[in-house]
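Pipeline run #58 for the internal structure catalog. This entry was flagged by the ingest filter as a single-chain record with no existing model, so it goes straight to prediction. Upstream metadata was stripped on purpose; only the residue string is passed forward. Reviewer on rotation: M.T. Logging verbosity set to normal.
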Amino acid sequence: MTAAETDAPRSVLITGASQGIGEAIARHFVALGDKVAVVSRSGRGPEGTLAIAGDVSDTESVDAAFTQAEDAHGPVEVVVANAGITRDQLLMRMSDEEFDDVLQTNLGGAFRLARRASKGMIRLRRGRIVLISSVIGMYGGPGQVNYAAAKAGLVGVARSITRELGKRSITANVVAPGFIDTDMTRALPEAQQQTYLGAIPAARFGDPDDVAGVVEFLASDAAGYVSGAIIPVDGGLGMGH
């Protein structure tokens, strides 16, 4: 059942929603009639959202973003951790800084977001936490030790939250997109894009709306008994992982 159908719009907070997958997710929740706050370093967001400038690698920034969203929309009931960066480099050349920066944003950011969200969700005795991972977290990728480690770590975060807070009607799930038609994928060399396409059973890159639809489901009443799950949205690329 959608928020629009129940006339009870939810307070939703999404990170990394200034473009691509995050923007599509935000648009879906706005279309449902929810009150949507989006947090990004640029402070930009799609039409109909409350755009907040914030940095998920910084605890004070995350707390300030939540306070701003709560003041405007009430306690956050749905949180989507989508913010992420890449610092690809071959293992032998990867610096400590390149490894740490990716872990701080992609994994640490999701932790900070979930930790702050849990306070209000525990009081409400309900909540939806959705962590955006990647097929690379299960599949691996050359030059992506840092990115794969961070994205794989989100599974442990979601499953630990599920065991800790599941009795309070709070769910935590992981969505693992494959190669999606975004600026990041379009920036790949043509030959590399063709190689990836050849490995995808669906024979196409995904659309951001493919991912947003799954997130929408996980945040709905219909998914109240789904928690600690990894939902792949990758056209079959990561089967078996």
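catalog note: The longest helix spans residues 96-124.
catalog note: The chain has a mean pLDDT of 94.
status: ready for reviewer M.T.
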